[in-house]
Q: What sequence folds into this?
């Protein structure tokens, strides 16, 4: 949430976006006990709407989770969608492209994973990696990654026209909180599998990644596919914010269950 609470969670499109104006530790006055009580109710509502989305069948829901290592992408997906069953809801994680994926355009593997109507897919990382890792590490020339802002906007507009609802969340963690989370991964045997030495290489490039994220939000925050900047130093607040945003968007769709088959009223099965 912005340091100025009067600003919306989704940054204004007519102003320059700067992450320094957003506090990763912001909780809007919410206490942890209150948030944990709220998220229990919010999860149930997400599950209800997910069931309606499946039954309605008119829309697909794409939830994009982006953030630095240890920001809490997995944790957010597990928490917000905890009460959703496996029918119609899945997570797709994007790692280093395979040889096959590298032989295609950068959106090829993304398009394959987009949800069909009636389904929800959560992207852990996404097509925006092509504007992050490839840019920061100099894997593509500046002239090429700059073209991708509009290419991605056009891609998302097409998905929106085809009834894919897109919500994009930048999970905003401070550099100090990331240090603490990475240290936990090292110190806790149950979390060591999550740690990669490459995480430390990316951490050295923190400032470069922040500039890249600012450009992404500035250039790809559209009406069809808005970005939400979610404070993540307090995981319990992060989950409430994401759940509320998803609920608001799904409720606006006016989802409904299809009509009962003709002749079902009064039917008694013997």
A:
């Amino acid at each position: 949430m912005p340091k100025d609470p009067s600003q919306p969670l989704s940054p204004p499109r007519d102003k320059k976006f700067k992450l320094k104006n957003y506090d990763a530790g912001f909780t809007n006055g919410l206490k942890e006990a209150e948030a944990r009580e709220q998220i229990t109710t919010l999860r149930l509502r997400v599950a209800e709407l997910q069931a309606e989305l499946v039954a309605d069948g008119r829309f697909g829901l794409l939830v994009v989770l982006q953030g630095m290592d240890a920001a809490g992408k997995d944790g957010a997906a597990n928490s917000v969608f905890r009460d959703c069953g496996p029918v119609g809801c899945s997570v797709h994680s994007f790692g280093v492209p395979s040889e096959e994926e590298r032989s295609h355009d950068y959106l090829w593997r993304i398009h394959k994973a987009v949800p069909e109507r009636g389904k929800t897919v959560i992207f852990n990382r996404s097509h925006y990696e092509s504007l992050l890792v490839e840019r920061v590490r100099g894997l593509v020339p500046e002239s090429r990654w700059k073209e991708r802002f509009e290419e991605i906007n056009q891609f998302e507009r097409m998905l929106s026209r085809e009834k894919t609802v897109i919500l994009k969340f930048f999970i905003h963690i401070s550099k100090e909180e990331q240090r603490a989370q990475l240290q936990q991964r090292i110190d806790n045997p149950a979390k060591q599998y999550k740690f990669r030495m490459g995480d430390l290489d990316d951490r050295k490039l923190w400032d470069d990644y922040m500039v890249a994220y600012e450009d992404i939000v500035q250039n790809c925050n559209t009406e069809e596919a808005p970005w939400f900047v979610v404070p993540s130093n307090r995981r319990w607040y992060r989950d409430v914010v994401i759940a509320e945003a998803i609920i608001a968007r799904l409720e606006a769709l006016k989802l409904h269950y299809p009509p009962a088959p003709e002749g079902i009223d009064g039917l008694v099965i013997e």
Remarks:
- The chain has ten helices and five strands.
- The two ends are 58 Å apart (CA to CA).
- Residues 71 and 128 are 16 Å apart (CA to CA).
- Strands lie at 60-66, 89-93, 120-124, 164-172, 227-231.
